[in-house]
Amino acid sequence: MAKPKVRYICQECGYEAYKWLGKCPSCNQWNSFVEEVIDRVSKVPSMSTEAKIEKIIDIKTEEEYRITTGLEELDRVLGGGLVKGSLVLVGGDPGIGKSTLLIQVANNISREGLKVLYVSAEESSRQIKLRSDRLSVQAKELYLLSETNMDVIVNAVDNLNPDLLIIDSIQTVYSPSLESAPGSVSQVREATTILMKIAKTRDIATFIVGHVTKEGSIAGPRVLEHMVDTVLYFEGERHHTYRVLRGVKNRFGSTNEIGIFEMRDIGLVQVKNPSEMLLAGRPLNTAGTIVVPSMEGTRPMLVEVQALVSHTAFGMPRRVATGIDYNRVVLMLAVLEKKAGLHMQSYDAYINIVGGIQIREPALDLGIVCALASSFKDIEINPKTIAIGEVGLTGELRTVSFIEKRLKEAEKLGFNTAIVPKSNLKGLESIRNMNVIGVTNIVEALDNVLGG
Q1: Which CATH number does the domain housing residue 382 bear?
Q2: Confidence check: pLDDT of 448 > 60
Q3: Are residues 299 and 226 in the same domain?
Q4: Could you write out the three-class secondary structure of 7-43?
Q5: Pair 288, 404 in one domain
Q6: In terms of Cα–Cα distance, which of 198, 234, 205 is closest to 82?
Q7: DSSP states of 291-351
Q8: 227 and 111 in one domain?
Q9: How many CB atoms lie within 10 A of CB 218?
Q10: CATH code (residue 254)
Q11: Rounded Cα–Cα distance for residues 294 and 272 (Å)
Q12: What is the rounded CA–CA span in Å between residue 353 and residue 184?
């Protein structure tokens, strides 16, 4: 009897070694190697035995047929709907709402007369039924299968031939041809390869759920994200009701779009006007708060930036940032100290983006500066004023993109004054009901916002 071949595989990046290593030479992770038995005989058959070479000008293209998911926010992120034969990976923290979203999608699609097979490798059919009752799922063409064996799943797909296949989750299914444990690099890669073959050869749209690591990335080998057509991340704090669905890879559409949902007892509800939602309950006549128009893809969104500056009780002041890049906040504090003369080295500074969402664009810089200065001087900012602009290290304001879209969104919600970079004033004749003030540096901006 032949001795089984053993390899040590990094569970973070998939690097293989012949002996155990404490640190992975590829991704520099410690204690990530796991012993796995490699079966080199078992291989997934290739999708095609004959290769056909064609000139690119001779290839005829057709517009992809897209399946509407019944959720406009999800359709926007997917690029207009779900493409037949596509493989979509949905990742997110535990309890964020991935299974709830996919149950609702399955319900909407099956009500249109299409067959949907929902495979749960983590829950029993009874558990899924209890959740579906809570979500008022009444679809007749929605089929459930509680199974972890990939061979059984493939046979079920053969028998049912669904239009949509959902696998929840990819880390808990396994292929009997491999001896490694479910969730290992080999099993995840093998299962994804089988599902990709099913999706492409049978034109079945497929959703797979992926667990995330404590760093927030998809668990398993990085090649998993390269194999699928679309990668969606479900973001948001578990203790907040709002969720953001963000596309980080999409072969059939843009990766700049986001979808916003609100978690309720009846499931995930679409948020059609996120600006109004994020500004609900905003405190008035209070120092340290200002509204900034942000862009997420092609959608303008108003967010509230809050700051709290207080005298530190320790020798080292604290800097805390929630919903925004911490290093960006530290930079803005340094610019305020050097260019605006605000001595903040003995003050704690806390910055928060209201609503539990994450904003990473530099156009929020001026809003952070204004909120910090307002809290430091304890001077209120006019609640009808917005501020936008990227701040450089010399205190200058740089041009931001999509300025007209941002200002029109603020204009619709009743804001009447905008502080923008002076270089953005060109071509703003269409903004008639708002006083747009162009400034060149943070000193001019603070003079206009705080009154000198």
Answers
A1: 3.30.230.10
A2: yes
A3: no
A4: EEEECCCCCEECCCCCECCCCCCECCEEEEEECCCCC
A5: yes
A6: 205
A7: EEEEEETTEEEEEEEEEEEEE-SSSS--EEEESS-HHHHHHHHHHHHHHS----TTEEEEE
A8: yes
A9: 23
A10: 3.40.50.300
A11: 16
A12: 37
Distance CA 58, CA 163 (A): 30
Answer yes or no: is 59 within a domain. no
pLDDT tens, position by position, 292-327? 999 887 788 999 999 999 998 878 899 999 999 999
Q: Does the pLDDT at position 239 exceed 80?
A: no
Rounded to an integer, the average pLDDT of 232-247 is: 81
Q: Which of 205, 202, 180, 203 is nearest to 191 (CA)?
A: 180
Query: How far separated are the first and last CA of the chain, in Å rounded?
Result: 86
Residue 385 CB neighbours (<10 A): 19
What is the C-alpha separation between 257 and 77, in angstroms, rounded?
A: 5
Side-chain half-sphere of 140: how many Cα atoms within 13 Å?
A: 2
100 and 195 part of one domain: yes
Asked whether residue 287 is domain-assigned, the answer is yes
CA distance 103 to 137: 8
Number of domains the chain is built from: 3
pLDDT score recorded for residue 229: 93
Pairing of strands 435-439, 385-387: unpaired
For residue 82, list its beta bridge partners.
67
Decide which of 247, 272, 297 is a domain's last residue. Answer: 272
Q: What tens digit of pLDDT does each residue of 89-114 get?
A: 998 888 888 999 999 999 999 999 99
For residue 74, give its domain range: 66-272
- Given a contact cutoff of 8 angstroms between Cβ atoms, the answer to whether 79 and 250 are in contact is yes
Cα 161 to its chain centre, rounded Å, is: 31
CB of 152 closer than 8 Å to CB of 159: no
Task: Convert 75-127 into a string of H (helix), E (strand) and C (coil).
Answer: HHHHCCCEECCCEEEEEECCCCCHHHHHHHHHHHHHCCCCCEEEEECCCCHHH
Read off the pTM: 0.75
Task: Identify which of 381, 366, 363 has the alpha carbon closest to the alpha carbon of residue 419.
Answer: 366
Measure the CA–CA gap between 220 and 170, rounded to whole angstroms: 10
Dihedral of alpha carbons 364, 365, 368, 370, sign: negative
